[in-house]
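Appendix C: a fully annotated inverse folding record. The material below is reproduced so that readers can follow the format used throughout the book. The structure is listed first as tokens, followed by the designed sequence.
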């Protein structure tokens, strides 16, 4: 163990020293968040610990296969924990209502890979170089010699796969493939994961895609692309806000586009934005930060109050400023 980084040793010591745990993740959980939470919770339970696993928002349909025993629950007030572990959450606020329900604790561990992480824990392992939190959880479990069972391998593989865009994002590094390879060797069910996560879209999502393709807009020499998801679009298509993960890739992946943005109506005067960048010169996390949000250089988000059109104008203007600063407004062709 002595060759392990100090921070990992500290986390393992803290886990060994406590008995009651709550493993928590961010609002609108994604594959990396729930994969990390579930694997860690299962590991703690295998060690004889009392571990709960809480999320404010429900598990998106495509990840339900990872949690057949419904380990993930909504938070309850009045519980007491020795140790709370947050995974994949850049700020304490991102835990949403879970944050209020885990106040009675001795220690808060924060394990994350967001550059913008505010280091809100008592112990913080923030590794922005890691493409997923699941990769960090894998390293933690291996270092602590916790067993990685097949269901845990499924959870971690899902986290690694979804947060790397199926091993495509530039954050993907040799270690990512080693981790993924070892998880497959330990029994991760690739066929099941690919089927459930990538090849089982509900029809409602296809209807939402139709809406996306017929309404998306391009601006600034096709360098900026965006579309809106209004409440009525969800009602009309039967889709849920939890099922929008990955829609933004459809405009991000257009060749001239450098920055993609999705505007989602939360309330008439509250808009959630998702941002993606395809250029290492354009850091969308700093754009999101201008609106009180955060994330990674290539993927970020924020929730912004104001009239929808005004929000759109301000966000597009902020993206434009960054593109102009980096001289990325001219057509390459
Ligand atoms: P998505 O667009 O997929 O919702 O989020 C992209 C990335 O930005 C994720 O890593 C997510 O954690 C982060 N993110 C999204 N919304 C917010 C926000 O409101 N605040 C912060 N700090 N990060 C966010
Ligand atoms: Mn993540």
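Designed amino acids, in order:
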């Amino acid at each position: 163990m002595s060759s392990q980084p100090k921070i990992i040793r500290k986390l393992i010591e803290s886990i060994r020293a406590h008995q009651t745990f709550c493993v928590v993740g961010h609002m609108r959980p994604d594959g990396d968040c729930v994969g990390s939470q579930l694997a860690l919770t299962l590991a703690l339970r295998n060690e004889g610990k009392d571990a709960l696993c809480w999320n404010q928002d429900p598990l998106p349909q495509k990840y339900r296969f990872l949690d057949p025993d419904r380990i993930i629950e909504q938070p309850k007030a009045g519980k007491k924990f020795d140790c709370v572990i947050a995974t994949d959450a850049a700020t304490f606020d991102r835990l949403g209502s879970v944050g209020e329900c885990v106040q009675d604790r001795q220690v808060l561990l924060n394990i994350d890979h967001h550059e913008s992480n505010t280091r809100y824990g008592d112990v913080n392992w923030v590794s922005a170089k890691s493409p997923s939190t699941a990769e960090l959880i894998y390293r933690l479990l291996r270092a602590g010699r916790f067993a990685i069972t097949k269901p845990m391998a499924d959870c971690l593989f899902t986290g690694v796969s979804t947060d790397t865009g199926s091993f495509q994002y530039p954050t993907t590094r040799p270690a990512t493939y080693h981790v993924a390879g070892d998880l497959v060797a330990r029994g991760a069910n690739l066929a099941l994961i690919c089927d459930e996560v990538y090849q089982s879209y509900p029809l409602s999502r296809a209807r939402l895609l139709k809406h996306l393709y017929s309404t998306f807009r391009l601006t600034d020499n096709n360098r900026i692309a965006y579309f809106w998801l209004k409440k009525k679009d969800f009602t009309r298509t039967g889709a849920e806000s939890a099922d929008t993960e990955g829609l933004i890739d459809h405009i991000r992946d257009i060749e001239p586009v450098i920055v993609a943005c999705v505007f989602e109506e939360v309330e008439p005067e509250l808009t959630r934005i998702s941002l993606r960048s395809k250029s290492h010169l354009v850091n969308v996390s700093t754009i999101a930060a201008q609106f009180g949000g955060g994330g990674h250089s290539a993927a970020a988000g924020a929730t912004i109050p104001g009239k929808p059109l005004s929000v759109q104008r301000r966000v597009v203007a902020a993206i434009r400023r960054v593109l102009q600063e980096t001289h990325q407004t001219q057509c390459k062709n």
